[in-house]
């Protein structure tokens, strides 16, 4: 990529505007701590040209982000992060360039958020059963307008003084296989990819280096994902190179970003530090609009 950038700057090859893009950012419309306005301001401050807001199961933050982006000169690509079931595993897909007014997409997202709420209630009931006196009110205080998830439950446990740290919540109570773990409703890969496609978007396997095996990765490629998130805080340079190799070999697209949440997750340092060049965004557009 660096070579391509240099080539562009020298004026040969396909022209791409200079600048960097962070294509994986959460807001308070899911489990992020900051409003869309805040995120756009930070992006502008960090010198980013393009960001994608990719809230879990929610597109409600996009209008605000796009409006503020227009005022500050930061392009906001409409995105969303969906969870899919792959065997027993919870795998994440990122969708880009979706039509955020698509009725079918909006209906599905609203259904997923409702399922998230019911699951949060089941988790709280399980916690109460093992004598952890957490209330749904405390969880919803953390969720606010956001699609409720385990990060809110972890934050509520800390806030109520029931545990010391955010991560302890996952280890002791709500992580996979822990006593108060509850599964989330998930689509199959094929269903999620079809939904994203029908809303005009591109689908990407998110942060494969976090938990995805090679068998799962290739299953998803066969299922028809358009690309892979290559740049992510959980990927070291070797992982990055490996996934970039897979992208090239299978004629897929690349993506990347910080997966910034802020707040109790305590990842303030990642914002704007995990980026991709503009070619990456241009290649997505070419795939969609060629
Ligand atoms: P949910 O979508 O409600 O299942 O929440 C999933 C989110 O919880 C992930 O995106 C992570 O941010 C967080 N999470 C899951 N497992 C862990 C873990 N073991 N430690 C810390 N955070 C976790
Ligand atoms: Zn999240
Ligand atoms: Fe994710
Ligand atoms: Fe994410």
Low-confidence stretches: 1-13
Radius of gyration, in Å, reads: 19 Å
Number of helices: 12
Number of E strands? 8
Order of helices and strands: HEHEHEEHHHHHEHHEHEEH
Listed once per kind, the bound small molecules are: adenosine monophosphate, zinc ion, fe (iii) ion
Overall shape? globular
**Multimeric status of the protein:** single chain
Helix-residue proportion: 40-55%
Strand content: 15-25%
Report the span from N to C terminus.
22 Å
Largest sheet: number of strands, sense, barrel closure: 8 strands, mixed
Structural class: alpha/beta
Mean pLDDT: 94
Strand order of the largest sheet: 7-6-5-4-3-2-1-8
Keywords, separated by commas or semicolons:
290 residues; alpha/beta; 8-stranded mixed β-sheet; 12 helices; 16% strand; disordered N terminus; binds adenosine monophosphate; binds zinc ion; binds fe (iii) ion
